[in-house]
TrEMBL record:
Organism encoding this protein: Dyella choica
Protein name stated in the entry: Slp family lipoprotein
Pfam family, one: Slp
Signal peptide feature range: 1-24
Coiled coil (UniProt feature): none
Transmembrane portions of the chain: none
GO cellular component: outer membrane
Keyword terms: Signal
Database matches in PROSITE patterns: PROKAR_LIPOPROTEIN (PS51257)
Length: 168
């Protein structure tokens, strides 16, 4: 019997233990919530109307206006706990519209955020010199991820079999 065959019965237990470590999702998806990424919504906004979304990504910029704040976000896929996955391919940019004032110092560029809200049309803009269409999301709830939260469910444990060679 080789090692792989011997360890095979332990695989379901290992998966169960890893799943138990993953935090629960932050937000419950509304019935009929849109699962399309921002780039897809930007290309065909009429197909999505004012649907509900749960999106997340990396803060690009925060702009305050007299009665609201707009946060430009580079979207990333979310994991099962709704944490943005910045090592994945970006899924498009969007503008999150918050009522009132947000202190931009608390939302620095590069911080990861997850939010839920309603689509509210699109806006033409640009990324550098390239024209870009941003979906607009009126935010109902948002969460700014801490580094500790991003590590939750990712134990610093590794398993392996190998041979080491040392020089004395």
């Amino acid at each position: 019997m080789n090692l792989r065959t011997a360890l095979r019965p332990l695989a379901p237990l290992a998966l169960l233990l890893l799943a138990a470590c993953a935090p629960a999702p932050l937000y419950k998806a509304a019935p009929g919530a849109i699962s399309a990424p921002p780039i897809q919504v930007a290309h065909a906004p009429e197909q999505y109307g004012n649907g509900s979304v749960i999106w997340g990504g990396s803060v690009v910029a925060v702009r305050n206006f007299p009665d609201h704040t707009e946060m430009e976000v580079l979207g990333y896929p979310l994991d099962s706990s709704q944490r943005p996955q910045p090592n994945a391919q970006g899924v498009g940019r969007f503008i999150a519209v918050f009522p009132g004032y947000l202190e931009s110092f608390n939302y620095p560029n590069g911080r990861l955020v997850t939010l839920t809200g309603q689509l509210n049309g699109t806006r033409a803009g640009s990324v550098d010199q390239a024209p870009y269409t941003y979906p607009l999301v009126t935010v109902a709830q948002s969460h700014l991820w801490t580094s500790d939260e991003l590590r939750q469910g990712h134990p610093n444990i590794s398993f392996g079999v190998g041979v080491g060679v040392g020089i004395h």
